[in-house]
Design a protein that fits this description.
By secondary structure, this protein is mainly α. Strand 2 and strand 3 form a beta hairpin. Helix 5 packs across helix 6 and helix 11 crosses helix 20. It is globular and about 80 Å long. The N terminus is likely disordered.
């Protein structure tokens, strides 16, 4: 009932580098954590209340089904303590993120982690006891007391997994082994972030740079092509040196996933992973199938990229430089107004709520020393409001990120306003729909108000690259994950060299190596070892499915299709009260069918048509 909450508070995030301060920061540019707790002492007081609740709920263990009254008391207590922990954890994490060098934030964050472990331990009896009660008894209780209706979906989510749940002894064994099964991810994180002996290169301007992950992200987009190749060769060459080690690490994780699938009586790792949110494997398989069938659309983009960059033979190190260079500045005040204007198709209520929200210090806007990098939205401080961490650097990509994160924030705002806490939190499968839909609205608005063809090219080029990175690249990752997991599920072994061969074949296929679209050097096929998402199995495909659904919803809303706006907003308001695939399907988007993916390809081709029309006009 609280797996999403305990698993991670800030799953909704965009990876961006933190840059030196862009604007003179004011208090209005910083989030107001006092909306959660006025002081750290108030946090301490609430933590003591949580401790008391944890003791109280221990009395429910073994007694959950004694009566409908006892059943309700225990479920309500569970929901309230989880809500309290969500606020405590949000405050602690965000206090740390606003200044990662401050001891107070680090200490509170560590204390919050300890509290989280206590919460999970104290409430672990709920699932097995609900299963022991059985569907008939649980449904009787739900029918006897109408106030229990808020637990209809959480109870169904537990009961439907009965065939995959072991007896008490078996579940205890799995829980105990869980303490020893995170080694692969831990080794990956330590080696790739802390212990890797990063290479040093000298760029064409004489600058010497240590090519660690942050520098790679920065310099892979360098204007000088030789610099880009130098950076790629140095960075991937270093990963290649550790191919054997990363192969062992990743293979261990794949074996663990396979074993857990067998123990829980699933046919394979993919099915088990998707069943957490009752997602049919047909969704995953349709995504990969449709992407492979429409690779000519991606190849068209690469040919256009080569033309716009003036490159005769496109190479893998040519995919990151921006298509259009621009010095235009978009301070957050301007970005906010552009965003508000762009979401008018969602109706007055949505616009009015967002207009008020952007003035309430929900955001921490600008980068500064020791602030966490990237961008995320946290919406689980249920009785407060969503919070957004940004690192706005006054370019158009920052405006796009602003719209993306506010899509998440409005999703949480509407879900929290409509749903009780226990069903307000929503899964990733629907989370990214809200963010990508707002990005489509932003692009549509920016193209309408653009003053020149150069400005239109900036927006169109940004949208194209977003589709490449968020749809095609994530689908490619999903393709790779499906293949390597399937091999291990069948009992096959995999070395680092074998993984590079599998990834390399997929990488070359997606980028048109055989067709002469883009040349992929064999050295770069070690890229699989660099992707941290692979240690969170079958996760990234949801970015691609979400952008597909978001494109379809946005297109219908912009065309004024009757009922389209309300169907979309009802998904946001539903939060986690229903299974995500079924909810989206009832709104008219079946992600197990080709249609949503065709909408993405149509959108991408339309953007390229517009770019080519502008180019033809100026030839």
């Amino acid at each position: 009932m609280h797996k999403h909450l305990i698993r991670g508070l800030f799953a909704v995030a965009v990876a961006l580098p933190a840059l030196p301060g862009i604007a003179a920061e004011t208090e209005a540019d910083k989030w107001n954590l006092q909306d959660m707790y006025a002081t750290a002492a108030d946090w301490d007081k609430d933590a003591l209340v949580l401790d008391k609740q944890l003791k109280e709920i221990s009395g429910c263990s073994g007694h959950l089904g004694e009566s409908v009254k006892r059943f309700k008391t225990c479920l309500d207590l569970n929901a309230d303590l989880l809500k309290r922990y969500a606020r405590l954890a949000s405050y602690a994490s965000q206090l740390h993120d606003q200044d990662t060098g401050a001891t107070a934030g680090l200490d509170l964050n560590q204390r919050s982690d300890v509290l989280g472990s206590k919460v999970e331990e104290a409430t672990s009896f709920l699932r097995p006891e609900v299963l022991k009660l059985g569907a008939v008894k649980v449904k009787q209780y739900l029918a006897q007391d109408k106030s229990l209706s808020i637990y209809d979906h959480p109870m169904d989510d537990i009961l439907r997994t009965a065939t995959h749940t072991l007896d008490k002894h078996g579940e205890e064994l799995i829980a105990n082994f869980g303490l020893a099964t995170g080694t692969a991810g831990a080794v990956y994180s330590t080696l790739s972030n802390s212990d890797m002996p990063w290479p040093k290169v000298k760029l064409s301007d004489g600058t010497e740079v240590v090519i660690d992950q942050a520098a790679y992200t920065k310099y892979r987009a360098a204007n000088n092509r030789e610099d880009r190749k130098l950076v790629f060769d140095a960075f991937w060459g270093k990963w290649k040196e550790f191919e054997r080690t990363y192969g062992v690490t990743f293979y261990e994780m794949l074996k663990k996933d396979s074993v857990y699938a067998k123990v829980r009586r699933y046919p394979d790792s993919l099915t088990q992973s998707l069943d957490g949110n009752k997602l049919p494997p047909a969704v995953y398989n349709m995504l990969v199938e449709q992407t492979r069938a429409n690779l000519p659309t991606l190849h068209r983009y690469f040919k256009l990229r080569a033309k716009m960059l003036g490159v005769k033979e496109l190479r893998y190190f040519d995919i990151y430089p921006p298509l259009i260079h621009s010095d235009r500045k978009y301070p957050v005040s301007m970005g906010t107004q552009l965003m508000l204007a762009s979401v008018k198709p969602l109706g007055d209520d949505y616009v009015q709520a967002m207009t008020k929200a952007v003035t309430q210090r929900w955001m921490d806007v600008y980068p500064r020393p020791k602030k966490r990098s990237g961008a995320y939205m946290n919406g689980i401080a249920y009785d407060v409001h969503p919070y957004l961490l940004l690192n706005h650097n006054d370019d158009y990509e920052s405006v796009s990120t602003l719209a993306h994160e506010w899509g998440h924030a409005m999703h949480s705002y509407l879900a929290n306003k409509t749903q009780p806490f226990i069903t307000a939190d929503y899964p990733t499968f629907t989370a990214e729909i809200a963010s990508t839909t707002n990005e489509v609205f932003l692009l549509d608005h920016m193209l309408k108000i653009a003053q020149s063809d150069d400005e239109r090219l900036l927006y169109l080029g940004s949208a194209l690259e977003n589709l490449r990175g968020t749809f095609f690249r994530q689908a490619m990752f999903a393709d790779f994950e499906r293949e390597v997991h399937a091999k291990v599920d069948k009992g096959e072994s995999l070395t680092g060299e074998a993984l590079s061969k599998i990834y390399g074949d997929i990488l070359k296929s997606y980028h048109g190596d055989k067709e002469g679209v883009m040349k992929i050097d064999d050295l770069y096929t070690i890229e699989w070892a660099y992707i941290p998402h692979f240690y969170n199995r079958f996760y990234v495909f949801q970015y691609a499915t979400s952008i597909s659904a978001g494109s379809m919803f946005a297109d219908e809303i912009l065309r004024g299709v009757p009922g389209a706006k309300d169907k979309y907003l009802n998904i946001l308001k539903a939060g986690g009260s229903r299974y995500p695939y079924e909810m989206v399907k009832e709104a008219g988007v079946d992600l197990a069918s080709p249609k949503p993916y065709q909408a993405v390809f149509a959108r991408m081709n339309k953007i390229m048509d517009q770019i080519e029309a502008i180019q033809a006009k100026h030839q």
